[in-house]
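Sequence dictates fold. Below is an illustrative record:

_____
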Amino acid sequence: MEKQPLGRSGLEIAPLVLGGNVFGWTADESTSFDLLNRFTAAGFNAIDTADSYSHWAPGLSGGESETVMGKWLARRGRRDDVVIMTKVGSMPGRKGLSASNIAAAVEDSLRRLQTDYLDVYFAHIDDDKVPLEETLEAFSRLVDAGKVRTMGASNYNAGRLRDALGISAEKGLSRYEVIQPGYNLYDRAGYEGELAAVVKEEGLGVVAYFALASGFLTGKYRSKADLEGVPRAAFLEGFFDDRGMRLLDALRKVANDLNATPAQVSLAWLMSRPSVVPIASATSVQQLDDIMGAAQLKLPGEALDALDRASVA
């Protein structure tokens, strides 16, 4: 499978990143292992997680996803052909981007993941209570020590990202080479515009989370009534407005015309964006096979135009 550069990081990844937020939550350990094995056997190589996954779920406190992935890596016995991405800053008890918190959190993540380095270490969310220079110096020290290959910024706006890149250049520090914004066919405004301009100017890589809008863009939910008992219901309710329903209609039509699924079309649309690789999760091998099929789907111009028209605010 053809891989693409992740910005100027020196890393190359396949066109889909597997989301690890479900590991140890809606996918138990055995299912998670099956998903990871299937994903890598198909030629994909990048997996995204965070220290905080999945602290929001009843009975969980964070760290569960990294722990499952660490057990999988240990059982697999090979580390060098996978790109592991994790994050710091949002886990209860480890919140924020102070130098001391980053230094402690990375050791926790390395232990849970049973590895001695992270391929991409993201600041999970911007922390305006800590000077950018302090955060960047802490990350840069991890790069210098070989514990982190590449730094990333998740949930940074364009202004703060520009400031961070400027400080890194001025101080001779390692810089954020990858960003992780929320971006999908429904939620476009937060990335397109200023943030996309910074990406283009600075040659950054982009891995987009909420690529399927918490499952809305799979087309499996036709109305709010379908959300009863769904673990992600709170994330999904806001999508069922007039624009969302119009978008679902367009997705289903394009999918039908191309003998594809709405999920595949949604992910293929993101893959058609410059420098963008979507993150998507699955809780079954059947779901995983579906989303992996997006990597083989090329959307014709008329399909892209139809999706653009349907997704405008």
In short: The mean pLDDT is 95.
